[in-house]
């Protein structure tokens, strides 16, 4: 069933602003990155999306291509961003089949809910490898192609937890802090060559894989979370897609080395907004008791479960 355009794109953007541009996206079959890509393709771009699952990635590519007659979207499944050769081969195929690379979205990431004592070294390393090494590999693989573009731009999908620290998210906080640091280094090194390099830091985005993993499924907990967000609502995939369109468009051409936070000012109250907990579970009591929400999807609460799934 086609996704309504109003779900992923505001009506303010002019048709064709990305005509003949090519975007290369890691994590492109995910709920956020697929909508970012969908918006760009709708506005004239062609795309290459990468993912671990062959079937899911190829299906997402076909679906995204349907938003605009004549759109070309390549889905490359079986790609592991932790392996430099895998990403390099995908970038070369993208440039060969679509004529180059103009934009990059580094969106591949891994996460789960766990306290530090429940995270094995292997589990921590896995998140760092996907988020940090995977982002580095993406930059290394695409820069040679971006140098041939008149509008070379890179966006990294980040987060806000590392601004203040977040219980049960030490692994992800460390990884995204490193991603933001890499973003800044790319801006400094490649800005003189015409690049822009920026992060987008989403808050809690409804109906996404991240919300399913980090937020309780119970309505009471959702209502309590929303109450703590200054803007009074969850974010939407359209919020992130619109931010992406801005940064990649001419309107964002002088924005460089920055993180665009799209979270309704939630991070300003981050001490009151925590992940992996239910209503009534107060800090630090839930940590001292070793408790997390019983209503999470695929949560990893112990070192044993982390080892078995990573």
UniProtKB/TrEMBL annotation:
Tagged with keyword Cell membrane: no
Top EC class for this record: oxidoreductase
Protein origin, superkingdom: Eukaryota
Gene Ontology cellular component list: peroxisome
Gene Ontology molecular function, alphabetical: 2,4-dienoyl-CoA reductase (NADPH) activity
BP-aspect Gene Ontology terms: fatty acid catabolic process
SUPFAM superfamilies referenced in this protein's UniProt entry, alphabetically: NAD(P)-binding Rossmann-fold domains
Keyword NADP: yes
Keywords: NADP, Oxidoreductase
Pfam families: adh_short_C2
EC number: 1.3.1.124
Reactions performed catalytically: a (2E,4E)-dienoyl-CoA + NADPH + H(+) = a 4,5-saturated-(3E)-enoyl-CoA + NADP(+); a (2E,4Z)-dienoyl-CoA + NADPH + H(+) = a 4,5-saturated-(3E)-enoyl-CoA + NADP(+)
Name of this protein: 2,4-dienoyl-CoA reductase [(3E)-enoyl-CoA-producing]
